[in-house]
Amino acid sequence: MSAVTRQARRATSNAVVRQLPVGSVRVGHADRQTVSDALSWHYAEGRLTLEEFDERVAAAWAARTGSELAAVQVDLPPVPAPEADRSSLLASVVTLLRHRTLPAVVAAVVLSSLLLLFVLRMLLWAAGGFGGDGHHEVG
Predict the structure, then answer these.
(1) How far is 74 from 85, CA to CA, in rounded Å?
(2) What are phi and psi of 76, to 5 degrees?
(3) Taking the mean position of all CA atoms in its chain, how far away is CA 61?
(4) Can you say how many angstroms the Cα of residue 71 is from the centroid of all Cα atoms in its chain?
(5) Per-residue pLDDT tens over the stretch 14-39
């Protein structure tokens, strides 16, 4: 990764952090969700134990001000800006599996199944296996 790309990612990450309310300014659900998402990323990267993650997420959702919200991530580096490969379905499934929670595994299985069905449908369509009315052609 080039130095320019790293700087752009850092600038974008810091911009996200700066958009959060600061000091005694009240925070909203979207602010809490942003921090909760960042904590999830740090947990997936191995920076937090499950216990620390749970404590910090609870503190984030209990926060009323920007300073309370900032306190739960003060010792963590900024989350990098999303990259094209991070937004792919496969990367999302891998991230879900890293959390190893039942809802995450179920979501990964459902997403994978939908992707598989989509790919199979496209292959059958491309091979001419389905007629224009959506019914399988026989013989």
Answers:
(1) 27
(2) -110, 145
(3) 18
(4) 21
(5) 334 447 778 889 999 999 998 999 99
